[in-house]
Design brief:
Oligomer: single chain
Number of strands: 0
Structural class: mainly alpha
Order of helices and strands: HHHH
Distance between the termini: 66 Å
Number of domains: 2
Strand content: under 5%
Largest sheet: none
């Protein structure tokens, strides 16, 4: 997608009240269902959950302010989970880096002594 068009759409959306944003979303989903030429990008499990919660709240005619507050909380939870996942990856990387030199020293090559005349090699 053209970066300038995307930024222009973002500016236009920022000027709309929350109630109208959901109308825009509905229209975009309609256009996608009708004219999409490629599948949409894969959502993370947390994004899928958030979208399901949002759709359920909208179907239940929950006020827009309550939906916004709920989605803000889910967004904060998503950022927290991403931070935890990054910290976990960093710990695993550090442990793997620390274990790699130790594994190399433990796996010393086997030394063999030359065989005596006509005999099998000895370890």
């Amino acid at each position: 997608m053209n970066e300038f068009v995307l930024k222009r759409i973002e500016r236009k959306l920022a000027s709309l009240p929350e109630e109208r944003i959901y109308q825009v979303l509905d229209y975009v989903e309609f256009l996608e269902a009708r004219y999409a030429t490629r599948p949409e990008g894969a959502a993370t499990p947390l994004q899928k959950l958030a979208e399901k919660v949002e759709d359920t709240l909208r179907a239940g005619r929950v006020p827009v302010n309550a939906i916004k507050t709920t989605m803000d909380a889910m967004s904060a939870a998503g950022r927290l989970m991403s931070g935890l996942a990054a910290a976990g990856r960093a710990v695993v990387d550090e442990v793997a880096a620390a274990a790699a030199p130790q594994a190399r020293t433990e796996a010393k090559p086997e030394t063999r002594t030359p065989p005596p005349e006509g005999g099998p090699p000895t370890a």
